[in-house]
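Quick question, first post here. What does this chain look like in 3D?
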Amino acid sequence: MKSAVLTLVAVTSLSITAGAQAQSAAANAARDYPSRPVRAVVPSVPGGGGDLSGRIMAGGLSEALNNTFVIDNRPGAGGTLGTHLVAKAPADGYTMLMGNIATHGVNPALFKNLPYHPIKDFAPVSLFGTTPNALVVHPSVPANSLKEFIAYAKANPGALRYGSSGVGGSPHLAMEYLKSLTGMDMLHVPYKGAGAVMADLLGGRVHAMSSSLPSLLVNIKSGKLRALAVTTKSRNPQLPDVPTVIESGVPGYEVTIWFATFMPVGVPRPIIVKLNTVTAKLLETPEFRARLAQAGIDAAGSTPEGLAEWVKVEVAKWTRVVKLANVVPES
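> Answer (accepted):
Ran it through. Tokens below.
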């Protein structure tokens, strides 16, 4: 019995020592992190809101940590391909996902057989920004307000075409959600990416679009597109004269686009904490906040645990919207 007790004490002591050594090694790794460039995966084509926000965040982290966060655009399947790539990457802290409402909100609600789990396969780092969608129309559309647009669409069923970056993406769901609440009858024209739909919208081949403000702001301010409403509860400082959808007579309608950073599950906790701390400091810096604001993005941070809870709430919300709008993903 005495021998067994001594053996147990020895094993316990070894376990404690091994655990302490592992914690010490992780802390040392975080202290020197990053010691080489970090791949920052943007799961969309260049030019959209997710790409722009990711580039701003990667630039801020590069400056703050005195190392390079290299943007790697990996579009496809509504963000699924790039997100899956990060989920399966080595958990060493050198692959980051510039995630968003699509990768960790809409897609898990829409697709039954996603190749990744939005919670189990990721180590959340931090939320870093939110923005509204803006509902925009080509100047040829005879509507100067959302009320006029709804009235025109209802009086001319099927005459208006709206574009999106793909079936099941947040621009598609946002418009279908609005249609379901207003009774509008419009034709959906899906594209493969934000760049293609923007080209046709500017050319008048489609009439309308609901997409993240950063991807639309330049063309709104130049007058090439007319903004009818923003989708958050409050107006956006970049478009102070553009009312919200709720103000425009559609109670209860709200869509907030958000951007956040994630890493593969298993990345050492000290690295996650370091990145979260650096992000929080960046979001307090007037210069960095101004970069986000110029793109129409409001700075918004979180703890890793807060981001995990945010994801759970978003998946639940978009699951309800998918059901309400009766959206079926393409096979």
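The mean pLDDT is 91.
Residues 2-32 form the longest helix (31 residues).
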